[in-house]
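Quick one:
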Amino acid sequence: MSIQKITPFLWFNNDGLAAAEFYVSIFKNSRITNSNPMVTVFELEGLQLMILNGGPKFKLNEAFSLSIACDTQEEIDYYWKKLTDGGAESRCGWLVDKYGVSWQVVPSMIGKLLSDPEKGQRVMDLVLEMKKLDLNKMLEA
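Output:
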């Protein structure tokens, strides 16, 4: 197995292991691969991430997010419910979880829908009005 060349590295105050355990409990193909008081390394669906317990100097914000491509509305609903528990809903399929990490929970076909010459603008108009995305409404646009 080759080493992942680029790894998202998240700065937390001091609860990196708890956050990694939370994420691993949500995603099926996930595991913590290494942890010490300073750094936790984990995998979510094959993507390696690292968390540094670096103290309060820097805060996570919406300028960086992780996007989850969902094939069904049930999948969208599942991730939305799990990740907003203790967190906050935003707009257009975005949320911030209880650890301050921003996520986009989106249909895997969103690019195709938005680039459709006939319905792309209607889909975008709907997305801009939604918090959690509704795949059926997007398909009907």
